[in-house]
Amino acid sequence: MNALSILQSADLASLAWGGILFWLGLGFAGLLLQRSRSLVGLILPLGALGGLFMAGMGLSALLLPSSAIVLPIGLPDLPFHLRLDPLSGFFLILLGSASFGVTLYAWGYFKNLAAAPLALLTLWYHLFLAGMATVLLADDAYAFMVAWEVMALSSYFLVTTDHDIPDIRRAGFLYLLIAHVGAVSLLLCFGVLQGGHGAYTFDYMRHAEITPYWASVAFLLALFGFGAKAGLVPMHVWLPEAHPAAPSPVSALMSGVMLKTAIYGLLRVTFDLLSQQFGWWGTLTLGLGLITALYGVIFAAVQSDMKRLLAWSSIENIGIIVAAFGLTLIFYTDGKGALAALTMTALLYHAFNHAFFKGLLFIGTGSVLHATGERRMGHLGGLIRFMPWTAWLTLIGALAIAGLPPLNGFVSEWLLLQAFLLTPGLHQPYLNMVIPVAAASVALAAALAAYVMVKFFGVVFLGNPRDPSLHEAHEAGWRERLGMLWLAAGCVLLGLFPSWVIAWLAPVVQQLTGQTLINDAPSATSWLMLAPVSAQRASYAPLVFFAVVLVTLLLVFVWVRRVYHGRIRRADPWDCGYPEQDARMQDTAEGFGQPIRQIFESFMRVERERPDPFDRNPRYTSASLDKIWFIVYEPIAKLAGWLSNQAGRLQHGRIQWYLIYSFATLIFLLVFVTR
Amino acid sequence: MPLTYNLQVINLLAALLLLISFAMLSQRRIAGLITLFAWQGAALSASTAIVAWSTGQHHLYWSAGITLVLKVIAMPWFFYRLIKKLNVDRDVEPMINIPTTMLIGIALVIFAFNLALPISQMSGTVMRSTLGIAMATVLLAFLMMITRSKAIPQVIGFLAMENGLFFAATSATYGMPLVVEMGVALDVLVGVFVLGIFFFQIRETFDSLDLKHMEKLKER
Q1: Domain membership flag for residue A358
Q2: B204 in contact with chain A, both atoms CB, cutoff 8 A
Q3: Closest CA to A58 of A98, A22, A103, A102
Q4: Which residue from B142, B215, B219 is facing A654, i.e. has the nearest CB?
Q5: Sign of dihedral through CA atoms B13, B19, B24, B27?
Q6: Residue A625 neighbours by CB under 8 Å, 6+ apart
Q7: Does residue A51 belong to any structural domain of this protein?
Q8: pTM recorded for the entire structure
Q9: What is the DSSP track for A440-482?
Q10: Which residues make Cβ contacts (< 8 Å) with residue B1, sequence separation at least 6?
Q11: Which residue numbers in chain A have pLDDT < 70?
């Protein structure tokens, strides 16, 4: 407790701001030091330490009362307000701990980059980190929006690191466009929230008197704005474009951490800034979240580009988190505080887990990309032999995201499903009937996620190499491995000790829902056994489970080695009539996803190119495209183009016409004035 | 008594101004246009001087002097030289035929008088009744800019518009502060020189001063 009291006296918010300044300083130092490659190379590991520091700040914020500072920067009379409370603290831990691993990895990943591009990259990278941290700490709308924009712009430059490729420029533009549409919506949301007083600090907004109508407007604007950033269907289109375009560590940060800042914003606005909530908000977000989860996972299943697959899987996970958010709102407005606390715990837990396993998977693909230069799964395969570290660590991430015990993904999804099973106590009979369907959809999404991960891991790492050049694939360096180890360790530990994690989450859940999960006195076995509602109803003991799994594996291993192999007989196998088997005969990414594509074909637009029967060199291509793009975005784009063309007609090139425009305007204004 | 006498003279000059505006609208030759412009400047200068004399607003003498030097002497001389150098003193074919233009001009004058009625009632100057004429001059000059397709008449139209504005300022509020007027005069002078340089450039590029050659300067 001694260390804590020292921290308390030093004012946490200022310390956290110091961490942000440290990141900013590192970013600009990189720009100044670009003459010296060795010094620039030191910036990333220092940035990783900054991440650890921020995580520490967040951790102490969970234990200490919230602290606030006013910074002397910003516009005149509009200084920046920062505040570190448990909610900010939790997301700060997420940011710091995930970015620590990713930055360590990036240190190795970018080690062959020349000084000048590396300096630029570290600048945007640290601006991105600092922007995200400031978003989490901001305590007034101005600081929030400024940090939000810094985050959006720096990540835009990170996405377009390889800007000489047209597709990447296009992806970057799409990202920037949707980010700004979302930002405008947020700006309007804050405008509504201030309730006509013109005071934009969050403290005022908490006490602003808003009618239910305007509260709903603010909520919808926030849902749209943050949903655009989080990748909620139908605002998700940028995500499968931008994530694969960015360098892998950046994808890991964007998917693992940046999407969570949107979740943070949604929580902050809904549970903190708005003083009243309504049940239908919960129903709406629950529906949106479920649609997003299913849509994301279905598209993840049909992808053949590994990073795109992971991007779609991020959409799915965001969908699950948003569904948990909707369920929390439903419980909360129904007066079921304990259940709201349960779903909130599941939400935060899943957000944290996703940062770790999705970060791990993205940097895993980064190693593969580095080693083989290939993102298309159809050209990979069998990499576990050449890159055992990457493969095994990625396997941990894949198992975690698939929701298998004893890893972390299981815990959060299990908690969420527990909450779904407890809904029959709701006061609205209608919801009571619909929610089992929702629970089934979450279960379906989780199962399909496992399917996707089997596809991802199986096609990339197992089997035989589909390309002879893969035999030269090299293992990731020690720095990369260190980063992956950190994230994988997170996946394991978060899965093995859920009771402790939930205890740490308690202050955040308390702040948001007014209740916690820990209602009874901790018993001797509570760290071993996780029982969210009551031990009679459902409980989960990950360590015991893990031990059983280990023992079983060991027994099977020993049995196979000692007993089974003892009777082994070596002979030519029956080759099914195919004497020549090669790597091309393995199941492909497309083939693996085929059943899903068959079942859910109505969701997508499949473009196939079938070969002519008499073609000497037959080619078959098929692409599963996002239908929402064609239904929603293309008409909007066409309308915008048409309107611009109409406006372009004003331009004749004849000076007389321009003069007539001025003349008509003048006459119109004169008539208008005399009215 | 001298005030009403002076007012009569000012009204006469204002009417002259309007008449010259119409004459400019109907003038086909550029040299004639320049002469008319000089006369318009002279009328403006004279009326300003009379206002200054009759109301004792001494800074208006300066305005009158600047107008006389710039708009009656310097610019017409500059334009005469320009057309001689560029050799463009041919008939100007307006976009809309002249009778139609005149009819539109009459409509504009009616509109301007209508417009000026409530404003001149608020104004406290002796020559508030001429505000309508000032506005009509502005609109007619604008109309001239629209109907002409050659570069020099357009610039003259622009300057005539400035004359109208100047007259409006004098009649509504006894003119703008002297500093502002000096600034405007300088702007006009510089503008004319810049346009003069442009004329040479345009002619060098398109071999003509007809602005229809510039239509291809748009996108696509």
Answers
A1: no
A2: no
A3: A98
A4: B215
A5: negative
A6: A604, A605, A606, A607
A7: no
A8: 0.80
A9: HHHHHHHHHHHHHHHHHHHHHHSS--SSGGGGG-----HHHHH
A10: none
A11: 1-10, 424, 517-529, 531-537, 566, 579, 675
Pairing of β A67-75 and β A604-609: unpaired
| Exposure string over B124-155, b if 16+ CB within 10 A, otherwise e | ebbbbbbbbbbbbbbbbbbbbbbbbbbbbbbb
Residues across chain B: 220
Are the beta carbons of A376 and A461 closer than 8 angstroms?
no
- pLDDT, one tens digit per residue, over A464-474 is 888 888 888 88
Put simply, whether B137 touches A (Cβ < 8 Å) is no
Its domain, for residue A661, covers 625-674
Chain B contacts of A660, Cβ < 8 Å? 146
For residue B72, the 8-state DSSP code is I
Identify all chain A residues contacting B217, using CB atoms and an 8 Å cutoff.
653
Minimal Cα–Cα distance from A132 to chain B, Å? 42
Burial of B190 (C-beta count, 10 Å sphere; 0-12/13-18/19+): exposed
Q: How many helices (H) and strands (E) does chain B have?
A: 8, 0
Q: Under 8 Å CB-to-CB from A202, ≥6 apart: which residues?
A: A81, A83, A138, A139, A140, A141, A268, A272, A273
Q: Which residues of chain B have a CB within 8 Å of the CB of A656? A: 95, 146-147, 149, 211
CB of B154 within 8 Å of a chain A CB? The answer is yes
- Find which of A656, A658, A660, A665 to mutate to test the B interface (most B CBs within 10 Å of its CB): A656
Q: Which two tokens stand for residue A571?
A: 């002979």
Place of tokens 């220092």: A46
pLDDT number for residue A374: 87
Residue A661 lies in a domain: yes
> Within an 8 Å CB–CB cutoff, is residue B217 touching chain A?
yes
Q: DSSP class of residue A78?
A: E
Q: Do B115 and A655 touch (CB under 8 A)?
A: no
Q: B219: which chain A residues are within 8 Å (Cβ-Cβ)? A: 648, 651
pLDDT tens, B44-96? 999 888 888 887 778 888 888 888 988 899 889 988 888 888 777 666 667 77
Residue type, A12: L
Flag whether A278 is in a domain: no
Residues A371/A114, Cβ–Cβ less than 8 Å:
no
In which residue are the tokens 């070969």 written? A611
ipTM of the complex: 0.81
Closest CA to B62 of B46, B49, B79, B78: B49
* Cα–Cα distance list, A484 to A101, A125, A353, A575, B1 (Å): 7, 19, 14, 39, 101
Q: How many domains does chain A have?
A: 1
Distance of alpha carbon A498 from alpha carbon A420, whole angstroms:
19
Residues of A in contact with B142 (CB under 8 A): 659, 662-663, 666
**For residue A624, which phi and psi values (nearest 5 degrees)?**
-100, 110
Which amino acid is located at A324 in the chain? A
**Residue B101 touches partner A, C-beta closer than 8 Å:** no
Q: How far apart are CA B149 and CA A657, in angstroms?
A: 11
CB B201 within 8 A of CB A638: no
Q: Return all residues near A350 (Cβ < 8 A) that are at least 6 apart.
A: A317, A320, A321, A324, A409, A412, A413, A416
Write phi, then psi, for A570 (nearest 5 degrees).
-95, 130
Look up residue A314 and give its amino acid: S
- Tens digits of residue pLDDT in B182-207: 777 778 877 887 777 777 777 777 77
Distances (CA, A) of A388 to A394, A466, B129: 10, 17, 96
The three-class DSSP label of residue A363 is helix
Q: How far apart are CA A633 and CA A96, in angstroms?
A: 35
Q: Could you give the CA distance from residue A403 to residue A361 in angstroms, rounded to a whole number?
A: 14
B-chain CB neighbours of A646 within 8 Å are none
The neighbouring-strand residues paired with A625 are A605
Instruction: Give the per-residue pLDDT at B175.
Output: 67
Distance from CA of B147 to the nearest CA of A (A): 7
